Amino acid sequence: MSSPGLSSPTPPCAPEDVRRVACVGAGVIGGGWVAHFLARGYDVTAWDPAPDAEQKLRRLVDAAWPALTQLGLAEGASPDRLTVTATLQEAVADAQFVQESAPEKLDLKRDLLRQLDAAAPAGVVIASSTSGYPMTDMQTEAADPGRLVVGHPFNPPYLIPLVEVVGGERTSADAVAWSSRFYEVAGKSVITMDREVPGFIANRLQEALWREALHMVANGEATVREIDDSITEGPGLRWAFMGPMLTFALAGGEGGMAHMLDHFGPSLKSPWTRLEAPELDKKLYDAVVAGCDDAADGRTIADLVAERDQGVIDVLRATGRLRTQGEAK
Ligand SMILES: NC(=O)c1ccc[n+]([C@@H]2O[C@H](COP(=O)([O-])OP(=O)(O)OC[C@H]3O[C@@H](n4cnc5c(N)ncnc54)[C@H](O)[C@@H]3O)[C@@H](O)[C@H]2O)c1
């Protein structure tokens, strides 16, 4: 979607030469980005307007550090290389890359990207973690929209490799290419999209699955625990190393995907088209929240985060995808 015809000032350094990264918005995702960049040996500045943001951020980094240490820290990597600033302007003043992870509200993102664009050095690429807004809709207020890209991570950004990169109509093709390369150098696995798609790729898929899960809870067809077990004891095991398409191709036996579609396609027309979004009323809301409490079996969020982190590391290790320091593509 980015435009080869649009140009912005050239980024002040090559993706390989970045040393200082700014993270603006330091909640679950911004904090996860901070932990990732620190572990990769960058100097990180962060800004978040919440009064308790710094404490929360440092707690998140401390909780992530054991997992990151297992993965292998870059030389000199340290939580001490994090500076939390009092203003947005200070955070980005010397940054060579900016990652925005503020709340998912369109007006807020538009205004924040305008401010970041006004404060960051000319040409520095600014990426948004948005889960679904097209950059075309967010870059409307910025003086230099050419340097604004989406860099959509997955929780937690310090462990899940994927980042989906896509520009908006006014993003320069150079900014898209620069940010894709930067994320690779910073240890991420990148999909660079050539057009804006609602929910990008992975969220669009996750949202479809979640929609069906919410319908099942709403209709009393399955509990939260059964839904989670159905994935972790079933297809989720395959998806960790082979995506849904190739997995289904194998379900077609020697005839592969062609046989699969001939065999099951006609009977799947109805489930493919049956459902619309569930009504997220109070009853469904309460049932999903209570179901998650039940499935947690007394484990706190911190317990679950530690369990998840170890699980992701084990899966990456078992499937030969544990990318340690210095293994950027
Ligand atoms: N949670 C996920 O799984 C996930 C995954 C991928 C992407 N994202 C995206 O990441 C972004 C952040 O989501 P999150 O889950 O970390 O939310 P969050 O609520 O955990 O964190 C948001 C943070 O932004 C701060 N904030 C509020 N106003 C701000 C402003 N004007 N400028 C800067 N910061 C501000 C808040 O104080 C808070 O710390 C969203 O765009 C979201 O769609 C979330």
Note down, in words, how this protein is organized.
The chain is of the alpha/beta class. The protein folds into two domains: 15-192, NAD(P)-binding Rossmann-like Domain (Rossmann fold, 3-Layer(aba) Sandwich); 202-318, N-(1-d-carboxylethyl)-l-norvaline Dehydrogenase, domain 2, CATH 1.10.1040.10. Helices cover 48% and strands 11% of the residues. The protein has helices spanning 28-39, 53-71, 88-92, 106-119, 135-138, 173-185, 202-218, 224-232, 235-239, 244-251, 256-274, 282-296, 301-318; strands at residues 20-24, 43-47, 82-84, 97-100, 126-128, 148-152, 162-167, 189-192. Strands 3-2-1-4-5-6-7-8 form an eight-stranded mixed β-sheet, with helices on both faces. Helix 1 crosses helix 2 (53-71) and helix 10 (244-251) packs across helix 11. The model has no long low-confidence stretch (mean pLDDT 92). Bound molecules: nicotinamide-adenine-dinucleotide (NAD). Nicotinamide-adenine-dinucleotide (NAD) binds next to helix 1 and helix 4.
Which blocks of ≥5 consecutive residues have pLDDT under 50? none
Number of domains: 2
Count of DSSP strands: 8
Q: What is the structural class?
A: alpha/beta
Order of strands in the sheet with the most strands?
Answer: 3-2-1-4-5-6-7-8
Under the CATH scheme, the architecture of the largest domain is 3-Layer(aba) Sandwich
Instruction: List the bound ligands.
Output: nicotinamide-adenine-dinucleotide
CATH class of the largest domain: Alpha Beta
Report the average pLDDT across residues.
Answer: 92
Overall shape: it is globular
Largest sheet: 8 strands, mixed
Strand content: 5-15%
